[in-house]
Design a protein that fits this description.
heterodimer, A: 477 residues, alpha/beta, Rossmann fold, Ubiquitin-like (UB roll), de novo design (two linked rop proteins), 3 domains, four-stranded parallel β-sheet, 16% strand, globular, B: 561 residues, alpha+beta, Alpha-Beta Plaits, seven-stranded mixed β-sheet, six-stranded mixed β-sheet, 15 helices
Chain lengths: 477, 561
């Protein structure tokens, strides 16, 4: 049976656990930072030595940690891209701009256990020769910024930040920067532009890969809150031990934000891939099932930009049989293990690990209209396909949900959406705004067509109605 | 275009390694590095390689002289790279050629560097579809008001829609409405609905003009170009944004609603407002100048020019232009007047004639005047015009041809130092004849009282002034737009310009009547065409040795000054 596994949120919800440094220290806080700073160079078989920071970087690679922000990119690999020979300072930025609809995991960490993030960041900074780091926090998280600033002050006072940390000779300063509430600031290069005081227009890649030309055109690491917290645990337990958590290539834990039509919406930390979507929805330890008398209609598995799953949808997943031969196994959507690879194989993604559950009371067209309106509002407008396409889709869906639909609107929507993703835009927002439209219409086309057709029929009847009736109807309005 | 002009500003091509790429199946060798917008050598991009291969890649936001931002997505292409095996060695086809792995995602050609063996595909169905998609997106909220838009006829939205777009629109929603006829500054109007948000104007203003005046407000499809509240868009380069605006969003208050651009005759010319000599195109219709636009010349002005120079053309069409040849106030013919002047000059005593020429005159005219000067033993000079300069284009020297006046021997390296000597000569009665070209000498130390003492005051000018009022002989001259000739700019660039419009009345190019005068007085002949005249001058003036009218090309040649 699937279980919760609390690694990151081990203490956060314990009764009496507070976000202040005394509480954190009582729970072994900053011990791992001490351990990291004290790492001695390790001899290699070839006679070379591996420095402490290099050992941490190696451990992160071994751990198999994948980014928790959405893309699931290997953290060790990301760090390996950093240009360490440029002679320029290297910056680390914590992406705390958690904005993907349905996602509320980083918020738990920052609000309840801010020192865990600071410790994870400090270790990451040490590992990457970073002396200045930023926490870019979403503008709406006003209290979060206050809590983090208080925590930074405490950490400085205790000597965990600042000059010559714990006598190690290592200097690190850290600042909180509040965003102004734009979703696009979660895109790492948009975030960097925003941090530089500019409009958060994502940068083109090439040439502006953050690892080479990031903040102030210096090498920069941008990692998600949860990712950085994981670094602490990797150093604490060792990369190989960490890699035993979860499933192969999907290591560690994930904090799943479960929302929508379940009895127990909330956040649940699991070993990655050790619970299925169905278990997360129905198990009494997690979602506790749908409301009584309701049937499942759809699930968005990884934040609102992920492609939707329809209840009953089946996928053919590659699995190894008893003899190690690869076979295709038909798997129901609910039986998909909640990890990066299974969801990708099913054509969607675990994204920011936010599951949005919709039961049969959901008007699927309304649901998509809601999502599309969000993306139209959040498109930064820098590049053409996303700027124009996101609002176009939203306007069409608005029409379709306000009695002005057409039966052909289903195909029309897909054609608009098809013009946006696949490398046509500067950043992944193009995918984020078009994937919901493509997947909702593909999987629930009959509902879109029916809604449009009903509108057409009603309008035809209005036109055909005798003039007196129309006048009468108008008078009633 | 003159090869001399284009090669000397770019690094020697041999210094840069060449790499081979294929553009739509055609192999081409291109330099690995090319100068970027700021002149810095940077890896050659796909769009530059395509340009070298003479393959058009449509684009809006990309401009070779601006930082690359890659926002319009019009230049998306597909591409392939030599496939590598697990041993990191190229995989070969059965015929021994490298196997090319087509990349799954397209790339913007403006920002993607090329690499050896790369294949760029600009005509695949996917590329065609992406361009259609971008154009459709750009057009859905566009007002489609071409019939009343000044940009019509030179609009990239029109051109690419015809070349790469779809004819029908699927859009049935209401359009986004944005501000129209926004007064951005004293010379610029914005129609935000026409804007495609390529940000060329923002980048030019910030990175070239050095004025962070423009930005974008709002989000997504509601994005709008704007200035800061209460801060008008008013630097000396604002009108360049109208040139680089690919659509009709930014229009020049001076030109808007004046003329459909397809009626304009475009003449290659040079701006005369300062010694920089920005290359321009004069847009004219039926002998009326409608606008100047900058003409690209990397040795002088790049693709830019200043607003002050651009708008300094209205005097050319003024009603009070000198149109008649006058002898002591009586209208006469050129032949009669020139014969009379020639006779007087031939009979004049050596040293009794002084000449004040103008550094606004052409090299050829100044050279002809120098011939008169030496024959007559005359003292000559010109008038300096000094103003403010800036870091970009504007020179403190407001004469377009100070160097020409120096090189032809009309004045010394410091211009105007002989004017007091001329004044003294008149006062003492030694100088009896003064010939003035295009200058009001009463403002430069030779007042009306002195002019009254002269036996002969011969004046050629374009507009009336205090000197022309006192002249015994008035010879109406031409604006540069009305004749051909060349100037030597502040850096020694000899640049020729063409005739755009006819001169009013009897006004005649100075070099034409100067030729007659020089022939009458000195007997020197043999240059009745501007080409012949220039070539004769080039043979005579050491700084111009070796030049010919033809080798000046459109962008000029730099000489040692």
């Amino acid at each position: 049976m699937a279980q919760e596994y609390k690694l990151i949120l081990k203490y956060a919800d314990e009764p009496g656990y507070t976000p202040d440094i005394e509480c954190y220290l009582r729970h072994g806080g900053y011990d791992v930072l001490k351990k990291a700073l004290a790492l001695q160079p390790r001899d290699l078989p070839d006679g070379k030595k591996l420095s402490g920071p290099e050992q941490i970087r190696e451990d992160v690679k071994i751990s198999g940690l994948r980014g928790r922000g959405g893309a699931g990119f290997s953290c060790g690999l990301k760090w390996s891209f950093v240009d360490r020979k440029s002679g320029k300072p290297i910056y680390l930025i914590c992406n705390a701009d958690e904005s993907e609809p349905g996602t509320f995991k980083d918020r738990q960490i920052m609000y309840k256990d801010p020192h865990q993030l600071i410790e994870g960041m400090a270790i990451s900074c040490f590992a990457n020769d970073v002396h200045l780091a930023y926490i870019y926090i979403r503008g709406e998280m006003v209290d979060g910024a206050k809590i983090l600033n208080r925590a930074l002050k405490e950490a400085r006072a205790k000597g965990f930040l600042g000059k010559n940390i714990l006598g190690s000779g290592y200097d690190l300063e850290m600042h909180v920067h509040r965003g102004a509430g734009a979703y696009i600031c979660g895109e790492e290069t948009g975030l960097i532009e925003s941090l530089e005081g500019k409009r958060p227009y994502p940068r083109i890649k090439p040439p502006y890969f953050p690892a080479v030309l990031g903040l102030w055109m210096c090498p920069t690491i941008v990692n998600n809150v949860e990712t950085l917290c994981n670094i602490k645990h990797i150093v604490a337990m060792g990369g190989a031990e960490f890699a035993k958590l979860g499933t192969p290539n999907n290591t560690g834990t994930r904090i799943v934000s479960l929302s929508g039509h379940v009895k127990r919406p909330g956040y649940y930390e699991i070993e990655t891939g050790k619970a299925t979507i169905g278990e997360l929805i129905s198990d009494p330890k997690f979602g506790g099932g749908l409301r009584d008398g309701r049937k499942l209609k759809a699930v968005i598995p990884g934040g609102s930009s992920a492609k939707v799953f329809k209840a009953g949808e089946k996928f053919k997943l590659k699995k190894k049989d008893a003899e190690g031969k690869e076979i295709l196994v038909e798997t129901d959507m609910l039986d998909l293990p909640y990890d990066f690879d299974s969801l990708a194989a099913a054509g969607s993604m675990s994204g920011s690990s936010a599951i949005i559950v919709m039961d049969d009371s959901t008007d699927i067209v309304e649901a998509l209209a809601n999502i599309s309106e969000f993306y139209a509002h959040e498109s930064c407008g820098q590049c053409t396909p996303c700027r124009e396409g996101s609002l176009w889709m939203s306007k069409t869906l608005h029409r379709l949900t306000h009695g002005e639909g057409r039966a052909q609107d289903a195909d029309y929507l897909v054609k608009i959406a098809d013009n946006i993703p696949g490398g046509r835009t500067i950043c992944a927002f193009g995918e984020a705004c078009s994937w919901p439209v493509q997947s909702f219409v593909a999987k629930f086309k009959d509902e879109f067509v029916a809604k449009g057709a009903a509108d057409e029929a009603r309008r035809a009847k209005e036109v055909a109605a005798p003039v007196e009736q129309q006048a009468l109807a108008a008078a009633h309005h | 275009m003159s090869t001399a002009a284009t090669t000397e500003t770019k690094p020697a091509p041999t210094a840069i390694e060449k790499i081979k790429v294929k553009v739509d199946g055609r192999e081409i060798e291109v330099p690995r590095l090319i100068a970027d917008w700021s002149g810095k050598l940077t890896p050659t991009t796909m769009i530059q390689a395509c340009e070298l291969a003479k393959t058009e890649v449509p684009h809006y936001c990309y401009h070779p002289k601006l930082p690359v931002v890659g926002n319009c997505r019009m230049c998306l292409v597909e591409y392939g790279m030599p496939a590598l095996g697990p041993d990191r060695k190229p995989v070969l086809n059965s015929d021994g050629t490298p196997k090319i792995a087509k990349m799954p995602r397209p790339a913007i050609s403006c920002a993607t560097p090329i690499s050896p063996g790369m294949e760029i595909y600009t005509t695949t169905p996917a590329v065609k579809q992406m361009r259609e998609g971008v154009l459709e997106s750009l057009l859905i909220n566009h007002p489609l008001d071409c019939p009343i838009c000044d940009q019509a006829g030179e609009c990239k939205l029109q051109e690419y829609s015809v070349d790469y777009g779809q004819s029908a629109s699927r859009f049935v929603e209401t359009k986004v409405h944005k501000p129209k006829a926004v007064d951005l500054g004293p010379r610029i109007m914005l129609d935000a609905e026409r804007c495609i948000l390529c940000t060329r104007c923002i980048r030019f203003t910030k990175d070239i003009a050095g004025d962070d005046a423009l930005g974008i407000i709002n989000r997504g499809s509601y994005n709008t170009i704007a200035t800061f509240p209460g801060m008008p868009f008013d630097n000396n380069y604002t009108l360049n944004t109208v040139d680089i605006c690919p659509v009709g969003a930014l229009t020049s208050k001076d030109f808007r609603f004046k003329m459909r651009v397809w009626f304009l005759k475009e003449t290659k010319s040079v701006c005369t407002s300062c010694a920089t000599g920005c290359n321009v195109l004069i847009g004219s219709r039926e002998d009326k100048i409608q606008r100047y636009t900058p003409r690209e010349n990397d040795a002088v002005n790049g693709p830019w020019m200043c607003d002050a120079g651009r708008l300094n053309y209205k005097w050319i069409g003024r009603d009070d232009r000198l149109k008649d040849v006058l002898v002591r106030g009586q209208k006469t013919t050129w032949t009669a007047a020139l014969n009379e002047i020639s006779d007087k000059l031939k009979k004049s005593q050596a040293g009794s004639v002084a000449i004040v020429a103008s550094a606004r005159q052409t090299n050829e005219e100044l050279w002809l005047i120098s011939k008169l000067k030496s024959k007559l033993g005359a003292i000559s000079d010109s008038v300096a015009r000094v103003g403010e300069s800036d870091k970009l284009l504007v020179s403190a020297d407001k004469n377009p041809n100070t160097n020409g006046a120096r090189l032809t021997g009309i004045c010394f390296s410091e211009i105007g130092t002989s004017l007091p000597q001329i004044a003294n000569g008149i006062a003492s009665g030694k100088i009896k004849t003064l010939i003035v070209f295009g200058e009001d000498v009463t403002k430069h130390g030779i007042g009306a009282d002195l002019l009254g003492k002269l036996d002969n005051l011969i004046v050629s000018d374009i507009l009336p002034n205090a000197t022309t009022k006192l002249a015994h002989y008035i010879l109406p001259g031409c604006a540069h737009a009305e004749k051909r000739g060349s100037f030597t700019n502040t850096k020694g660039r000899v640049q020729k310009f063409m005739k755009a419009v006819e001169a009013p009345g009897d006004a005649r190019a100075e070099w034409e009547f100067l030729h007659d005068l020089v022939f009458n007085v000195t007997g020197q002949d043999g240059f009745v065409t501007i080409e012949g005249l220039f070539n004769a001058m080039a043979a005579d003036v050491s700084a111009f040795n070796g030049l010919t009218w033809a080798t000046l090309g459109d962008t000029g040649v730099t000489v040692k000054i």
